[in-house]
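Milestone M4 deliverable, item 7.
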Amino acid sequence: MSHEETREAIAKGATSLGIEFGSTRIKAVLINERFDTIASGSYEWENLLKDGYWTYNQEDIIAGMQTAYREMKQDVEQKYGITLQTIGSIGFSAMMHGYVALDRTGELLVPFRTWRNATTGVAAKELTNLLQFNIPERWSIAHLYQAILNEEEHLPRIDNLTTLAGYIHWLLTGNKAIGIGDASGIFPIDESTHNYHPTMIKQFDELIAGQGYPWTLEELLPKVYLAGEDAGTLTDAGAKLLDPAGDLQAGIPLCPPEGDAGTGMVATNSVRKRTGNISVGTSVFAMIVLENELSKVYPEIDMVTTPDGSPVGMVHANNCSSDINAWIGLFREFSEAMGYEVDSGKLFSVLFNKALEADPDGGGLLSYGYYSGENITGIDKGRPLFVRSPESRFNLANFMRTHLFTAFGALKIGMDILTEKEHVAIDSILAHGGLFKTPVVGQRIVAAAMNVPVSVMSTAGEGGAWGMALLASYMINKGEQESLDVFLEQKVFSDVAGEEVAPDPSDVKGFESFIERYRKGLAIEQAAVDHLVENGRD
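Output delivered:
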């Protein structure tokens, strides 16, 4: 679109806005009817450990949303000379799972508990056994049941149990809504009805019947919506909250709020069966759209859905880029101490590319970048660890390859269950996230770990906020009976270029050698823990 055409589109509201609350950044992306990003804004934030829980301050949630929106609005004004007053549609997404408990007035009863918390192990195990359905520690229902087991004081006052995206959506619309993808991280979904599984709801209520709470689970949970459905409109109070300057008009339709897994699938055109995507950030997760149900319950595999309700096998590892970022920060400190100011982009590029010069297996080095507990490998608390022996080939190239390998170590263990035990067919994987900003390197590492071709689209850098904007656009621009996968395939991605990297046999063999060390190291650690327990030590 020309500059003038874009200006006219903004003026008449022929746009869609996506705002995503990621683990390190809140981002707002405004797109036109051709799905091009025409303005954006962001807010950097960090989670904090408070009273034993990973959380974000409520003040930061609101201030971050307003800042990201304000920067996007200023971007519009600077580029097109227009004060943004209306938008065709809006959608909010955020980190999946976690625990947002609200009372009748909308007050947060406890600080938002994020997906990163590994405090619900007992609840998750009991619920998995009861429901015969894998309930990961991150899921909202696990957080709720653990709070019940802990006899937390706030429980009788709960009126609304939701996710971060659902909370923001409620603040702006007054509607207790949730997209089915995000809902599938709250409680199991019945694929036939596209709603919470009724038998499992009944089992949970029977489990806690003796507690005497003045609510049933169904009364607490937000209503489930499919992609494309209207999930409410922006209220006057919501418009003022999003844009305190008062320029934004009320009445704008909002699509169902979604989780970052769903927006990742949309942003990578991975909602069809046999497709998959991998999203890399503070955590890492792979999503494979399944043709058939799995034969059994696996604690390493989450069963979730696409935003339009198709079953997905999800492998989620709590740790990915944090340890890499910390080491690169150390290299930055060294450079500055030597009197050299280094551009962050160049620093990442140089160090990542060194990994391509390394021994295929990383030279015998070993690392566990566990900033927080890791459910897939049974580690309860964050314990970043780097190990080498006198025989290891310790150089910069091997050091970097080892840290890139280990970023996908826990994920690999989960993915092997899908491919080796369940024989799930994967045609290709599409990747997105900051790690892939450096060309080729990240793709080669993931292709080696997964042993499938890995593609990065030219739109990959747009991220989940762009994927959320696409879902908002789908709601108002889809054709009659047009499914989400057809909309994406034929309208959004028909002309989008992508770069595919096939697995290099040497890289694959090297990663297999590394993951063997990785598994052995975990076994040694578990044996040490068992020994301490047997001898009465914590």
